[in-house]
Amino acid sequence: MFIKIDRASEVPVYRQIYQRIIELIREGTLKPGQRLPPSRELARLLGVSRRTVSRAYDELIANHWLESRTGSGTFVSREVYEVKELFGEEEPPPKEEPPRPAAIDWSKFMLEMRFYSALPRERLPEGTIRFTQALPDPSSFPFEEIKRISTNLLWKPEHYYFDYSNPQGYPPLLDLLHEECELDGIDMGRNVVVVTMGFQQALDLVTSLLVEPGTAMVIEEPTYNATITLVKAKHFRTYTVPVGEEGVDLARLERRLRRGDVRLVVVTPTLHNPTTVTMGTEARMELIRICARHQVPILEDDYASDLHYRGMAHPTLKALDEAGAVILVRSFSKSLLPGLRIGYMVVPREIALSLVRLKRAVDKGNPAFFHVLLEQFMRKGFWRKHLGRIRRLYEHKLSLTLSALRKHLPDGVNFRAPEGGFFVWLRLPEKLSGEEALERMRENLVEAGVYNYFNYHRADGPGLRVAFSMVPADMIEPGIERLGRVLKELLSG
Ligand SMILES: Cc1ncc(COP(=O)(O)O)c(C=O)c1O
Fold first, then answer.
1. pLDDT higher at 321 or 71
2. pLDDT tens for residues 200-246?
3. How far apart are CA 127 and CA 449, in angstroms?
4. What is the dihedral of CA 253, 192, 211, 302, to 10 degrees?
5. CB atoms within 10 A of CB 50
6. Which end of the chain is flanked by fewer CB atoms within 10 Å, N or C?
């Protein structure tokens, strides 16, 4: 395959490979269905790193020039052929087509979210056991109750189900959530509930209000991928602070805050995603003291405290927050239905009105019907029953996962049994590359979440997230047996 790398060029090497392969496809040198050399081999031929070639291949796959077939390699996509057939184009377009001047260089605006093209749902071969999705098991969805409530509601529909809604949320739902927060020990004299479209909208609103141009925010490292993608999408200056065995590294955090440009710290003190670490009460109080001392608000991502199966849950930062420095965000995505898109924030009174105004400015209020549905679901007691049911379901899956891991993991791979949640975090020896591990896992019809998915800089690291919640109970052990085999091979190879 004829590819020449121009090292003096300003075009990155992976991009040169990308463009050249498209040219070779266009001129017909590479034919639909033709196999490309493995990334390792092409890298050796070109004298570049394997990662560079993989990146070019990944982008070509994402843009449908190539397709990857697990176990057999990378091929020129058949879609290229189909497109030609569709337009009746016999001959490839002439190579010397004069480039049309583009008024705008769109590449400047491209977001680095490559990972989405590396985890394409559709392209996984049948039979792959996926430990990548930390989502509720659809078999747990309470359809019967939802059917009953929505049938009743629609029997005699009210205009406000489908009118523009109150941007703070449906008032009876706000009342219920207010009571829940009081039960959790939060001072609801000083705080106000605002319902949002899940955690994601809350993060969007809070950052829009607090992180002004020229200022910065802190996120954890590693952290939840959707937090990373949102702060990237909004082009915030972002610092990362590592999460250790006790939670976010408080000494490093304080050093960062001393510089004076940080306007928000985002933390997940309970069942941190992906490491599952839960901060102790003393560390939580110290975190609040540090942030209050530097006048920096905390956004507490409490996505999983409903999914605590063992031991006692620690109080939220918000319940400990005498300083008034914490914005708590909760979600019904894991504990009920991600597609409801309902979460809520508990915010100090001082900023509540600004947040509601901002919310109205960007969405004019969320669909009220779903708020009414959730309010009824909670008021009729279905919510508590549902929580009891899913905790039993996931605790069972967690214990199957733990015993399979104990049986099948090679020496050198460690983990701590989490107290709840949807996944286990494996600590790997440093030498393993996540991308290589993912490739080998897919060849063996299994998948787990590799470290760079959770890293702001998309860097590799020694961790692997094994999410068990969506995997049918009888597939957990076979999947982990495959995973153990792959890790064994990688470690001995
Ligand atoms: C760390 C973390 N925060 C928040 C959420 C919930 O996000 P949302 O409410 O936007 O669905 C999740 C769910 O996947 C999560 O893992």
1. 321
2. 999 999 999 999 988 999 999 999 999 999 998 888 999 999 999 99
3. 18
4. 40
5. 17
6. C
Does residue 469's CB lie within 6 angstroms of at least one atom of ligand 1?
Answer: no
Mean pLDDT of all residues belonging to the chain: 89
Determine if ligand 1 sits within 6 Å of the CB of residue 344: no
Q: What is the DSSP letter of 343?
A: E
Segment (H or E) for 11:
none
How many whole angstroms from 426 Cα to the centroid of ligand 1?
A: 21
**φ and ψ of 175, to 5 deg:** -60, -45
Enter the DSSP assignment of 419: S
Confidence band for 313, pLDDT divided at 50, 70 and 90: confident
Q: Which domains does the chain have, with CATH numbers?
A: 13-97 (1.10.10.10), 129-140+385-492 (3.90.1150.10), 148-381 (3.40.640.10)
Q: What is the position in ligand 1's atom list of the atom closest to the CA of 268?
A: 1
CA of 338 to the centre of ligand 1 (A): 9
- Which of 333, 394, 422 is the pocket-test mutation for ligand 1 (most atoms within 8 Å of CB)? 333
Supply the pLDDT for residue 112: 56
CA distance 341 to 98: 48
E-strand ranges in 17-101 read: 66-69, 73-76
From the CA of 303, how far away is ligand 1's center (Å)? Answer: 6
CA distance 388 to 10: 58
Is-contact 274 245, C-beta < 8 A?
Answer: no
Q: Is the CB of 199 under 6 A from ligand 1?
A: yes
Q: Tell me the per-residue pLDDT of 407-420, one tens digit each, with 9 for 90 and over.
A: 999 998 999 999 99
Gap from CA of 486 to ligand 1 centroid (Å): 29
Residue length, the chain?
493
Q: Are 272 and 247 in contact (CB under 8 A)?
A: yes
pLDDT of residue 109: 60
Cβ pair 363, 217 in contact under 8 A: no
Mutate-to-test residue for ligand 1 from 197, 224, 243, 370, highest number of ligand atoms within 8 A of CB? 224
Confidence band for 73, pLDDT divided at 50, 70 and 90: confident
Looking at the chain, the number of H-run helices and the number of E-run strands are 16, 15
Q: What is the pLDDT of residues 238-259, one digit of tens each?
A: 999 999 999 999 999 999 999 9
Handedness of CA 209, 263, 231, 338 (dihedral sign): negative
CB of 343 closer than 8 Å to CB of 198: yes
Question: How far apart (Å, rounded) are the C-alpha atoms in residues 382 and 59?
Answer: 46
Read out DSSP for 135-154? ---GGG--HHHHHHHHHHHH
